[in-house]
Amino acid sequence: MNAPTTSAAPAAAPSSASVWRSQLGTYLGLMAVLAGMVALFSSLSEYFWSAETFITIANEIPALAVMAVGMTFVLIIAGIDLSVGSVMALAAATSAAAILQWGWTVPAAAALALATGLVCGTITGMISVAWRLPSFIVSLGMLEAVRGSAYVVTDSRTQYVGDAISWLSAPFFGGISFAFLLAVVLVVVAQLVLSRTVFGRCVVGIGTNEEAMRLAGVDPRPIRVIVFAMTGLLAGLAGLMQSARLEAADPNAGTGMELQVIAAVVIGGTSLMGGRGSVVNTAFGVLIIAVLEAGLAQVGASEPSKRIITGFVIVAAVIVDTLRQRRAKV
């Protein structure tokens, strides 16, 4: 067993000099893209370069950022979760129903939203692992089932919760919401978990070479389930954040948002093939998506135009990831 253990270790160790050089290059590249976009939109719109614009962006991205954190772990294990947008909607719907219809306290309703996300993610992970089904197919089915459940819970209508959980979106410091600060803390904690813990090394190892991890005595199945469960939990938190910002639970909330989440993670350099990724880089990807959308809105781009441009950005990110993979094999 010594030989397999030795071969598996490098796949899980992210601290080598070459990895740090690669990470630094990715950081600088993402920062350059972000700075270039800010400069471009500032030149196209006199209103873009303002504190109000950046505060608005900061207060709109927490839900996207939180879901992207979970998706980073999913993609690193070479999986995918298309149900996060629907899970976000169902979590918001269940918390609204708990407050408005069942008379629950706000903390209990918030806990229910988190539990809803956790259960949905766990189901996705367990079905995928137990039946050895592609997570793409399982999460696609969950996307529809969970979305339908959100319609049932809300009776297909937007449920207005008022300021019951508005503390999440209320200004906390300099106009920045508590939700944004919470998202920043989660990014930092998740990055530390990924890079400094045994669990994080196992996640990377599974995405790099799952068979080597098995030979090293690590069972990848529970780790896969935990990753999907964590992603569902974070989608539940995103539902609370979105509900707090809108003061309502909309069963249509999060429709198509899974694509934005995946785009942010891939733009941040996480490989669709698994084995490589960084939560901090994902945060840069989220900022790039947010700045792109805010900039296009300020220059008067139509909704179809914004979707087309965002689509091209996603394709470009996938092409870059593919080129990285090919270069790594040379």
Features:
330 residues, mainly alpha, ABC transporter involved in vitamin B12 uptake, BtuC, two-stranded antiparallel sheet, 14 helices, disordered N terminus
Note down, in words, how this protein is organized:
The protein has 330 residues and is mainly alpha-helical. The chain has a single domain, classed as ABC transporter involved in vitamin B12 uptake, BtuC (Orthogonal Bundle), CATH 1.10.3470. It contains 14 helices and four strands. It has helices at residues 2-12, 17-44, 51-60, 62-76, 84-100, 106-130, 135-154, 178-196, 198-208, 210-215, 220-246, 257-267, 279-298, 303-329, and strands at residues 159-160, 171-173, 176-177, 248-249. The strands form two sheets. Strands 1-4 form a two-stranded antiparallel ribbon. A two-stranded antiparallel sheet has the order 2-3. β2 (171-173) and β3 form a beta hairpin. The protein is globular.
In short:
This protein is an all-alpha fold and 330 residues long.
